[in-house]
Amino acid sequence: MLVGLQGSGKTTTTAKLARYFQKKGLKPFVICADTYRPAAYEQLSTLCEKIGVSFYGEKGEKDAVGIVRRGLKEGRKYDIKIIDTTGRHALEHELIEEMKKIHEIAQPEHTILVLDAAIGQGASEQARAFDEAVGVSGIIITKLDGTAKGGGALSAVSEIGSPIAFIGAGETLDDLEPFDPNRFISRLLGMGDIQTLLERAKEIKEIEPKKMLSGQFTLKDFYEQLEAMEKLGPLKQIIQMLPLGGMGIKLSDEEYEMTKEKIDRFKVIMKSMTKKELENPRIIDSSRVLRIARGSGTSVEEVRNLLKYYKMMQKAMKGMGDRGKMARLMKRFGV
Fold first, then answer.
1. 189, 220, 238 — which closes off a domain?
2. Mean predicted confidence (pLDDT) in 117-124
3. Most Cβ neighbours (<10 Å): which of 19, 114, 197, 230?
4. Segments forming the whole domain that contains residue 19
């Protein structure tokens, strides 16, 4: 059973949790008991349909307790049932009473409090009120892909003694991770999360960290890596996983967008290259640069910028691969 404040991302988290268990081989069943927010039914049903998860809700019905009772009966054969309740303020008496009744009927094995990473100092008071009402057994921190780092959630953990179970750090339904203290503290301190990034990369066959770190990759490989990087998630989320704290890199939303546009332009340019040029960039002379620029609808300067960036990245990645520390890091993560 998921509880939390309105706007905490609880409905999306419900679908993410269903997706998490689905990937573990279980058959989840989602019940929409949010009868106060008009779009809740449509949002949750659409998300569940997208991932092929069974859903129960009664559009227009205001009796949340009745919906849960009938939903549990309908989903009794499923491995795990997830109830999305109405987002509420912990001091709203009427909604708290409804939540208590739902909890009494459902008797959930876990009651999860969903907290927005940006909640700040209010986390302790809210967590205590929800815990007193229904007994919180775990916490999910959402929206960690934004500027907030979730420090307030630590106050909630301290207040009620319930552990953080998962963190949500992205917009897709696969962006829900089991909580890991080391990774969380690393993000909190601005040190990135290279471990999660490498684990994601290992799931995508196109990305070959060894080849990248050796510096022996071609423009063709570079293009494939850019394609594969898109599968890792939004650019902003990927960059936030890198240990940028010591590098002094701070990008605004506008700069993130500009970076994405530049990457898209690079891909267009590489599509105008021949197979030989992609496999052996050293043969690209001035006449070839001019032809590539015309063929891609870009400028000679942009083509030269791509080649410059490629060589710079090749050199930097090779340097990282030569360092004993990075080699040990790769070995540790099984790369």
1. 189
2. 76
3. 114
4. 2-189
